[in-house]
């Protein structure tokens, strides 16, 4: 259900299959399953955002921290015994951030004031 919530947010039929980038929805659904990992990701998001002042980079940095910490803290997620939903949600988020990633690579991504 967590994956479907993120898909529904990112590709809403009511918005002609457009929508958000999945960070907030992904964090919201994952805080139920992996609360410590989400807290670590939020800390990373805050630090990267404050230091580099690039919102998309902060979101992607938090995503990397979330994935890494989920494998370190919970090698096997007890309820489902797989990291597949986590990886699917992360893939969707990276997909939705693809334009931001290209701008980051070319140095054209704008900073937040």
Provide a descriptive summary of the structure in words.
By secondary structure, the protein is an all-alpha fold. 70% of the residues lie in helices and 0% in strands. It has one domain (2-106). The chain has helices at 2-10, 23-33, 35-52, 55-73, 84-96, 98-106. Helix 3 packs antiparallel against helix 4 (55-73). The longest helix has 19 residues, at 55-73. It is globular, with a radius of gyration of 14 Å.
Estimate the mean pLDDT confidence: 90
> Number of DSSP strands?
0
In terms of structural class, how would the helical and strand content be classed?
mainly alpha
Strand-residue fraction? Answer: under 5%
- Quaternary assembly: single chain
Task: Specify Rg, calculated over alpha carbons.
Answer: 14 Å
Overall 3D form? globular
Model regions low in confidence, pLDDT < 50 over at least 5 residues: none
Q: What is the count of structural domains?
A: 1
Estimate percent helicity.
55-70%
Spatial gap, N to C terminus: 36 Å
Helix and strand element order:
HHHHHH
Main sheet summary:
none
In DSSP terms (H or I, runs of 4 or more residues), the helix count works out at: 6
